[in-house]
Amino acid sequence: DRRFSAADVPAAKLRKSGKVVISNDATKITAWRFSGNIREALVSLRSLRRAATSNFGGMLYDPNTSLSAVPQRYSPIIADAARAHGVDPRLVAAVVRRESAWNPNAVSHVGAGGLMQLMPATARFLGVNDVFDPRQNIFGGTRYLRELLDTFDGDLDLTLAAYNAGPGAVQKYKGIPPYRETRAYVKAVRATYEASMASSHSF
Prior knowledge:
alpha+beta, disordered N terminus, two-stranded antiparallel sheet, globular
């Protein structure tokens, strides 16, 4: 199956008419097109099960690590989402910090909203009904990080680049896209994440 993410769905240039339906289950998300009695699978993304603690590109992802200096109201939500999706909570916190500076009502100039700045199409793809609900947003954003980590074989830089610019751009350039914003984003989130592993007061 071709690997993809929520960001690819609205950008796909579908030349044929028909109803598009996205189905979710425990192992994969598939976009189907229905035309009359014909069902066609457009794209499918599989979620690979990994051990709770895994080594990715020199980074240790531990979903059970403790958080410090994170706003108290968000710390338990991040911890729950991290355990549910097997993502280091310090990475989730680093993304939230960069995306919204912990503002649950943040809206970007392109329409992304909430703590982890989910685009409307991405939010729908992830089953998030209200991007301004902190729990829904963090769980959705953490799940998206997990899908991207799986898609890019745990490569942290490519995962962060895909979160910012979309996986299609990463696949197109076979690496971090040459966008100033994306390169700065990867550098900033990675620096915050690395600092959080060295010090509990990096946030």
